Amino acid sequence: MFRYCALLCLLLTSGVTAAEPDQLRLATFAADITIPLGHRCMGVLPIKAQRIEDPLEARGLVLLGSGKPVVIVALDWCEVRNGAYDQWRDQLATAAKTDRNRVMVCSLHQHDAPVTDSGAQALLDSVGMQGELYDVAFHADCIARVSDAVRTAIASAQPLTHVAASEAKVAQIASNRRVEYPDGRVGYNRGSRMDPKSAEAESDAGEIDPFLKSIHFYNGDRELATLTSYATHPMSYYGRGGVTADFVGMARRRRQLDTEGSMQIYLTGCSGDVTAGKYNDGAPATRGILADRLYRAMVEAAAAAKRQSITEYDFRCGELQLPFHEGEEFTEEAMTAVLQDDTASEKARILAAMGLSSLERLETQPIDLPCLDLGIAQIVLLPGEAFVGYQLMAQRLRPDSFVMAVGFGESWTGYIPTKRAFDEGFGHSWRWVGRGSEAVIREQLTRVLAE
Ligand SMILES: [Zn+2]
């Protein structure tokens, strides 16, 4: 208490306007959101949660004092979709006394973690598949706990006086799914783990963003929080029943031990087509190796951070009206038939329910494209599994600035290929958007990133 008073006196006498009502403030929060045993992972995996390898967390911050508050929350979950996405945003908006679209909810996309979609689960309930996508009561409880954490955090928000933006190159994690074979063929065949002797492992890394980006928030010279982002799928191995925040969670926790008092928040970049496949054999020990590489970049980026004063932030939000998947199996009739067919596989019926939920959503509500502008840096949240090409596009749209593009916001889209990937025949059942997505995203990105 004495130290706090001394600090406050110092701030007041040094001319920092702590007493002014529009002083910027920052609140940080965290809460446990680990799924119960027996819960479905990744929406459709056949092996459900059998043991907790390490907890799943929600970690975030609230910016206050320049217009309405802006909330950023990162979940150690696979995806949050449609009505479930609005449940998170609405309740956190109420807790922070702000608007829904100023709550930037993103998942880190670990695969031994849940996918939630309230519309899809309601459809599954109607055909006797209660709880098969996710546990609705557990989900509501997580939102309530995180909302409480937001309220508590705001009550003890700290003055925000400086920010810094920096980056560091990451060694040997990211590689693109797209592989150019020696005979000239192109295929999107690099998964998240590969045999080191395979052509997919030996081929070049392809299009990636090699830089880990970090944005640091300070009260004077004391760091309050760091947002760190890197574009890669976050899993080393999955589908064996071990719930985990995986190597990105390991790196974040190790970095947290170095930075007591500063909330470490990791965000997954736009990485629908980026995995660790070139460098990951899927062996359990490799998880720690990947975590170590990411951690080293976090340390290097933090060491390069240079504080600059901040007196305001700005917020802009675009709207994405994306086209739906063009395939005949993605019509309302076809998906309804699969959902109601009790001889169809569980996976097929869950995918159909998610498709129907998304189709209804697409017809009634565009996807928000929120952008938080800190002056020296912009943070833009893209939907779902946007390919890394969109992250690089966002950076090219503001060559004068520092753009942190984050993926896995509203995630009903599944994969969002670039035009090139569509042209090259990228095909996957985890895709609900159609051709033409790139033009829509480019237009809205241009708008929200403009000064
Ligand atoms: Zn994915």
Automatic annotation (TrEMBL):
Residue segments, region Disordered? 184-203
Q: Which range is the signal sequence, renumbered to this chain?
A: 1-18
Q: Which UniProt keywords apply?
A: Signal
Tree of life domain: Bacteria
- Supply the name of the protein: Neutral/alkaline non-lysosomal ceramidase
Q: Which organism is it from?
A: Rosistilla oblonga
